């Protein structure tokens, strides 16, 4: 869902076990520009394992009868008037997305800013919403220099996530992924999941559930609110 510049598809395709990636993005102009000019993702766009769909991800999930091992939300942030905030709601997760996961399937979504001062904008709400929808939910975060903040992601499933050591994680990366990863290894994964005390307490105390009627937004606005 989203990921029009191709980077999520690129990283997914590095996994040797991945048979097929469907990238569904609503913005054809962005996709075509990145396909033409963002050479770092050129190989991913040319892969015969990639199926590219230009449409709203929600509409595609409603239409399809296929079920997926993993669904990845590389969506735009929830901004007022933007196209994506409805894809962070409890009704979307429950009625549209979850039925399209296989048994044991996993959702991974970006969740917006997750810094000490910014995580309550939308991240804590999205986390709590997923906690109300899935049995097992893991928040994690890392600093993203281009955003000048810590950024948050969330994994969710109805099956427990296996607990493996940093060494086993490194071994799996070595045997399952093509090329050298610049950021992620076993220690980095554990560090990403180990949120600071303030954010952990805040996430645990969050009670807001993200709905269309009670949506929270980060700073900015979508085209629907522009004059």
From TrEMBL:
Transferase recorded as keyword: yes
A Gene Ontology biological process term: polyamine biosynthetic process
Gene source species: Physcomitrium patens (Spreading-leaved earth moss)
Pfam families hit by this protein: Spermine_synth (PF01564)
Keyword DNA-binding tagged: no
Catalytic residues as annotated in Swiss-Prot or TrEMBL: 74 (proton acceptor)
GO molecular function: transferase activity
Location of the PABS domain: 1-158
Top-rank taxon: Eukaryota
Annotated keywords: Polyamine biosynthesis, Transferase
Record PROSITE patterns: PABS_2 (PS51006)
CDD domains, alphabetized: AdoMet_MTases
Name recorded for this polypeptide: PABS domain-containing protein
Family (UniProt): Belongs to the spermidine/spermine synthase family.
